[in-house]
Amino acid sequence: MYIEKVKNEMNLPETVKIFDTTLRDGEQTPGVAMTVDEKIRIAKKLDELGVNVIEAGFPVSSSGEVEAAGEILKMGLNAHICGLARPLKGDLDAAIDADVDYIHTFIGTSPLHREFKLKMSKEEILSKSVDAVEYIKDHGIIAEFSAEDSTRTELDYLKEIYNAVEDAGVDCINVPDTVGVMVPTSMNWLIRELKSELKVPISVHCHNDFGLAVANSLASVEAGADQVHATINGLGERAGNASLEEVVMALITQYDLKMNIKTEGLVNLSEFVSRITGVKMPPNKAIVGENAFAHEAGIHVHGVLAKAETYEPITPEMVGHTRRIVLGKHTGANAIKAKLKEYGIDLDKNQFDKVFNQVKALGDKGKCVTDADLRAIAESILGRA
Ligand code: KIV
Ligand code: ZN
């Protein structure tokens, strides 16, 4: 609603591509490692969901990574299959040998990366990047280039290196907020700056160290970013990456962008990835968490039963979720009546009051009242238990 007041100040693209990196950055989640077969199964579901690019892994890092990328490619999916590679011949050849049709090459550009990690000059880094992009393009493969730690790199140098790879024929430049230090306003400013400088599509890759990965991704889109890197359930290094389900639902419902994502598959994919990786979602995780469409407070339940939109910004069906009415300390009479009706249990006023009081008493003891508890209470009051 209020977004309409500010939309004309934004530089929104017509649509946004989703570059999924669950199988690469997502696999860098501490404690997570996927087998070739698990990667294949997730890739199939990501493709069904409709993502544009699947970053299948980092081929040079193991033979399993090469095999996974190759096998995923053989499946003939609609999405491009991408391999990550440093601008090193060995890395690039490993990705090429894995047969991917898209290579994401990256190198650190910030003073910290130049001085302490790479021990390379600005000129060396720039020339390696240009060579890598030319090498990828000479093999007829789509090239995306990331200046790792972009958001702590001097702006002049960042522009210089992105201009150089653009001249070398790169297809997309990606702006990684590698340690999640941006806030939406600064991210928006940076993407506007780069947009005014470059002609190639711009992508962003936001980490969640300060819990701002989704907000920073959206601020980038407001500035004209054409693509967002994201992972299912926000998996990724440290605090993770921008959560795909949150980014996608915000882009579709808040900005009204037309995207080719079958959003009703989001909950299923989130649960699938959670089972495979062993990373459980907190119940209050936006969009896909167990409580995302659960209502307990009497006032809320009353509202939702009368008209769901009162306390739901989107329908649960849109993301493959289900609405849940939860009974507990904050429950009101409407919720209990609705549940009893669902079970075909008919009570007079006196009986109903007894059930209501028992539910409240259990809630006051800090207990959650399950549907089975409610039935048992009602049956005992009816003298059936
Ligand atoms: O966070 C990051 O900078 C990355 C790069 C490989 C792009 O994941
Ligand atoms: Zn990353």
UniProtKB/TrEMBL annotation:
UniProt keyword Lipoprotein present: no
EC number: 2.3.3.13
Keywords: Amino-acid biosynthesis, Branched-chain amino acid biosynthesis, Transferase
Pathway note: Amino-acid biosynthesis; L-leucine biosynthesis; L-leucine from 3-methyl-2-oxobutanoate: step 1/4
Catalytic activity: 3-methyl-2-oxobutanoate + acetyl-CoA + H2O = (2S)-2-isopropylmalate + CoA + H(+)
Domain Pyruvate carboxyltransferase: 16-267
GO molecular-function term, one example from the UniProt record: 2-isopropylmalate synthase activity
UniProt GO BP: L-leucine biosynthetic process
Cofactor(s) needed: a divalent metal cation
EC class of the enzyme, as a word: transferase
Subunit text: Homodimer.
Function field: Catalyzes the condensation of the acetyl group of acetyl-CoA with 3-methyl-2-oxobutanoate (2-oxoisovalerate) to form 3-carboxy-3-hydroxy-4-methylpentanoate (2-isopropylmalate).
Family affiliation: Belongs to the alpha-IPM synthase/homocitrate synthase family.
The name this protein goes by in its record: 2-isopropylmalate synthase
